[in-house]
Amino acid sequence: MMDYKRHEWQPFFIEDVAEIVSGKDIYERERKEGFIPYVTATANNNGIGYFVGNSNETLERNCLSVNRNGSVGYCFYHPYAALYGNDTRKLRPKINNKYVALFLSWCITMQREKYGYGYKMGTGRLKRQRILLPVNSNSEPDWEFMETFMREKEQKLLKPIIDKLCIRLIHNEISGGVIRYIRIGNHSLYPKYSQYYRVSA
What we know:
flat; 25% strand; Adenine-n6-DNA-methyltransferase TaqI, Chain A, domain 2
């Protein structure tokens, strides 16, 4: 894993690395049922508050959202097309790369503790908010380092999941692709759960 602590870092304004755009509220009475993520000021579910059938000019993919209200300062990456409420700010990273966007999201979220209910992250403050970024020999943001670092982090997180999935696929292939169940009373259970049940006489 790349050691980010040994890399040189320098502060940059957020407006130097991303374009900042206001969101637009879709009030509860206006929301239609649908499948489009509507990003609000929550710290949960990657910032998605609802799924709606509405559309407006904020609809866009490959953007970051930053909460300016509610759970102030949390930043999330949205590779999918999403709508953005006015309690968030939509950021278009100047480098259109998934891993760079994830790195920026991490760096922005690290600043959240200085904000709160009485000190919101408005557009003006967000533009002039400084974040530390790794730099190259020219003292410019080291986008290549950011991408490589996040790729390695992704692989580290995914490896145990992929290993488990491969073992399961191999097991299913050996057993002929059939999932076998054990009969317990009037119910059929997968064998691994049968130990938790007792058969009544």
